[in-house]
Task: inverse folding
């Protein structure tokens, strides 16, 4: 039986965290996660208007993009590789109270949360072991500093740049169209990274639960 | 080197590109493109698995073989795209190279020793050598004329068949290697070592040998590499996740998922887009010193355009004659025509034409005797022409009977009249001011007979704005580009022409340093500035501007200062260059968006296929209802490879460019390449799946 959420119920906070906490409640970190996504969206789609992409009059060039990509990479790297380590080692598997997809969701959630949230875990995971405490600590360290430092560097780079005046040729970032674009980038670039893992966790668990199979 | 439209898939170029696609498989080349390098490694890995399975007699050999083949095709298709773009450039370069083969040079030891000619191969000339070029000789290298005046056929470079004059000193002293002297002779000092001439640079750029990534290309490569690493992580960690879930995924399937997710479409076409962009610049007969400058052209905020020759026709024309009180219009027309008969300038000729058309005075020459109401004394060769000079700023004729006619700038003619005891009519000032205010040039006509001099009237010389300029400036404005007209005219005249032409702003009475100051001011405000120039005094401004287009007829100094050279010396070309720059960036952005949007469908094809054996319930995610796991994975990989080929024409031609504001361009491209990028793969992956099953390539 479930120690915590139903599969989809658990997937909602999990996805919110994996998006970089840019939804309600993500105080501070949520803002800069959103700004990183905005710059990513401006860069990918901004070229389509035939200019070097600009956000708030600041040109987005290689050094800005490098910082954005470090931010995106750190998150994916820590969550995915630490989860992989946990499911592949006896010490990691020892912490599970649930088998199957739900056990996998517990591990995935725990690492997502330590990197991007408050370090909470589903109730089924026994986190008080050397293995998990050590990995959680490292994940938190990465999740805080390895992500904040590139964001601060990004802010520094942008403030150094001259502000270009806005013209009709400037990429518009205040329209409903941009909102749709930003949502698309968040979902495709960020969320789809975790799609395979989610498919093996909450998604399959939900489908199995509907078939009457519980973990 | 004229801009000849080439069919997109020219058979010889295609043949060469096919073999180049294989040559480009060398890791040394592939590593320049991180996305395709990952695909190459994946192809090698899958091939090794295939060999292992074949020798061990295990696995689904047919499936692995097909995956391996399509992965290799993916790499080859991307190489083919790049080779096609290069091939089209090379075809242009070969045409250029022909003009240089076996060129010989007549080297002379010093300027004065034209008879000590030593014939050497053009390729052995060094900077500083002096060469003599006689009629029919090909000028062996880029250089400066130090002696002589000659007409030169530059059609090999510019495609323009009319010969041009090249002479020592002044702004017409630069000659280009590969052009041919038609008349007279030139002594030229070579200014470029072999391999460094403009022609060499042009060949190198179109061939891609010297191609360096532009800043935007670097930024895009970082983004694409970052995404590749993210997807690599997602795929690599999938194996332990699968093991945990009680299944295991074969390497070919993992590689297939990885290759489908990483942005191979844009990764494979990125360099082709860049090369094709350079190629389009060259087809406009412009040599860009780097890809960087072409890209900067797309970002330009302010265009500085010289008035004369760019916005207006080089020549002003007489459109009206205003007589002073007491002077009949016919008399003014007659005198004005007489004063202009010997004046061979276009302005002078337009006065003769106006007098003929409006006042019925037929054209006469000074030597064919009197005509109309011409003064009886204006006959024969006694008439003396007084040419225009910069100090007098007047021209005219001295008639045999002692009469004198003058025309020129208002203040100078007024002074001449006063010096000859004349009185300036009070109306003159207001007429002159009115003409200046309307953007014209007032030309005052005065006469002196036996008595004191008197002012006859004013000729209105008008700057003729070139046809279609207003529409072009409107197009630029729609893209958010401001045009500034630079002119030496006074502010009144400048304002009137600026309004007529439809430019946004003007800089009147401009000196070279004013131009420089304007560029600096614009740049300090965060704007990118483009300009054209040809004279040596333009060189500093050309160097300061973000995009400086030097005219080929210009001086060596101007050409070296600019970052592009227009071989046709057409200043309005700047507008086309801006459009090419924008198109280049748009094509990159559109294909990046398309490539990333494609991932949605590929996930939905591959993820259920991977795990449906272990968790049959995951069939729910197979929203395309693909036939089997094998057919699903194959279809995604095949789509991923074929889309590269399908988009080669778009990459080479560029996305269609329309002059509109950013918001409308974004809306349009986002619907076509973003929404289209999500939908298209769903349709085609399903189609390929149906086809594969129908021909029994997948079960």
Result:
């Amino acid at each position: 039986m479930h120690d915590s959420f139903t599969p989809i119920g658990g997937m909602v906070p999990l996805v919110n965290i994996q998006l970089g906490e840019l939804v309600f409640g993500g105080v501070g970190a949520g803002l800069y996660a959103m700004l990183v996504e905005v710059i990513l969206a401006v860069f990918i789609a901004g070229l389509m208007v035939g200019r070097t992409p600009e956000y708030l009059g600041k040109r987005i060039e290689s050094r800005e993009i490098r910082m954005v990509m470090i931010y995106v990479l750190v998150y994916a790297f820590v969550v995915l590789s630490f989860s992989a380590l946990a499911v592949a080692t006896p010490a990691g598997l020892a912490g599970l109270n649930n088998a199957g997809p739900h056990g996998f969701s517990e591990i995935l959630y725990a690492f997502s949360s330590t990197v991007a949230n408050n370090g909470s875990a589903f109730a089924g995971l026994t986190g008080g072991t050397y293995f998990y405490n050590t990995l959680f600590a490292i994940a938190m360290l990465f999740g805080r500093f390895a992500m904040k430092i590139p964001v601060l560097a990004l802010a520094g780079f942008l403030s150094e740049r001259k502000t270009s005046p806005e013209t009709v040729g400037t990429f518009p970032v205040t329209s409903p169209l941009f909102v749709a674009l930003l949502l698309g980038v968040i979902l495709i670039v960020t969320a789809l990274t975790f799609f395979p893992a989610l498919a093996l966790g909450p998604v399959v668990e939900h489908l199995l639960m509907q078939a009457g199979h519980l973990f | 080197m004229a801009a000849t439209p080439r069919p997109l898939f020219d058979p010889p170029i295609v043949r060469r590109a096919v073999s180049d696609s294989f040559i480009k498989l060398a890791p040394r080349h592939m590593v320049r493109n991180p996305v395709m390098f990952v695909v190459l490694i994946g192809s090698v890995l899958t091939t090794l698995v295939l060999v292992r399975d074949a020798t061990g007699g295990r696995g689904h050999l047919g499936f692995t073989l097909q995956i391996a083949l399509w992965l290799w095709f993916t790499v080859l298709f991307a190489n083919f795209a790049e080779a096609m773009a290069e091939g089209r450039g090379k075809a242009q370069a070969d045409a250029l190279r022909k003009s240089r083969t076996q060129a010989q040079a007549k080297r002379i030891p010093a300027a004065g020793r034209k008879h000590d000619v030593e014939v050497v191969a053009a390729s052995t000339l060094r900077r500083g050598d002096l060469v003599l070029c006689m009629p029919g000789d090909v000028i062996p290298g880029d250089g400066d004329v130090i002696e002589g005046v000659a007409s030169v056929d530059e059609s090999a470079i510019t495609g323009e068949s009319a010969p041009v004059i090249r002479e020592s000193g002044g702004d017409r002293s630069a000659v280009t290697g590969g052009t041919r002297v038609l008349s007279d002779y030139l002594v030229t000092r070579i200014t470029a070592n072999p391999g460094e001439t403009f022609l060499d640079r042009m060949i190198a750029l179109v061939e891609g040998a010297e191609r360096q990534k532009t800043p935007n290309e670097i930024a895009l490569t970082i983004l694409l590499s970052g995404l590749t690493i993210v997807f690599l992580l997602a795929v690599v960690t999938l194996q332990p996740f699968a093991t945990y879930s009680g299944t295991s995924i074969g390497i070919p399937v993992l590689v297939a998922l990885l290759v489908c997710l990483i942005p191979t479409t844009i990764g494979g076409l990125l360099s082709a887009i860049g090369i094709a962009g350079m190629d389009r610049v060259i087809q406009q007969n412009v040599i860009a010193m780097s890809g960087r400058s072409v890209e900067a052209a797309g970002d330009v905020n302010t265009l500085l355009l010289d008035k004369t020759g760019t916005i207006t026709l080089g020549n002003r024309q007489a459109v009206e004659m205003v007589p002073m009180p007491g002077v009949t219009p016919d008399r003014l027309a007659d005198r004005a025509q007489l004063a202009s008969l010997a004046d061979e300038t276009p302005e002078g000729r337009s006065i003769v034409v106006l007098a003929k058309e409006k006042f019925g005075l037929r054209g006469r020459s000074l030597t064919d005797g009197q005509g109309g109401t011409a003064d009886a004394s204006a006959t024969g060769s006694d008439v003396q022409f007084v040419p225009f000079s910069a100090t007098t700023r007047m021209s005219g004729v001295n008639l045999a009977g002692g009469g004198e006619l003058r025309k020129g700038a208002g203040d100078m003619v007024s002074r001449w009249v006063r010096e000859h005891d004349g009185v300036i009519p009070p109306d003159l000032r207001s007429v002159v001011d009115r003409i200046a205010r309307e953007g014209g040039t007032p030309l005052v006509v005065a006469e002196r007979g036996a008595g004191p001099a008197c002012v006859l009237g004013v000729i209105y010389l008008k700057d003729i704005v070139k046809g279609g300029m207003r529409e072009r400036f409107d197009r630029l404005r729609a893209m958010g580009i401001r045009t500034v007209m630079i002119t030496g005219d006074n502010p009144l005249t400048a304002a009137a022409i600026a309004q007529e032409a439809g430019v946004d702003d003007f800089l009147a009475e401009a000196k070279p340093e004013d131009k420089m100051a304007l560029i600096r001011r614009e740049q300090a405000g965060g704007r990118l500035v483009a300009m054209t120039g040809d004279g040596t005094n333009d060189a500093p401004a050309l160097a300061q501007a973000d995009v400086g287009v030097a005219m080929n007829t210009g001086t060596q100094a101007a050409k070296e200062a600019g970052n592009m050279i227009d071989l046709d010396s057409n200043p309005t070309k700047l507008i086309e260059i801006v459009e090419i720059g924008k198109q280049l960036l748009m094509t990159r952005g559109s294909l990046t968006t398309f490539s990333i949007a494609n991932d949605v469908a590929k996930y939905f094809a591959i993820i259920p296929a991977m795990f449906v054996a272990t968790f049959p319930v995951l069939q729910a995610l197979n929203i395309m209802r693909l036939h089997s796991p094998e057919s699903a994975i194959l279809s995604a990989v095949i789509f991923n490879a074929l889309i590269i080929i399908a988009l080669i024409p778009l990459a080479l031609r560029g996305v269609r460019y329309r002059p509109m504001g950013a918001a409308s361009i974004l809306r349009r491209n986002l619907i076509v390449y973003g929404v289209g990028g999500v939908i298209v793969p769903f349709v085609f992956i399903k189609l390929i799946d149906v086809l594969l099953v129908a021909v029994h390539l997948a079960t």
The longest strand of chain B covers residues 312-323.
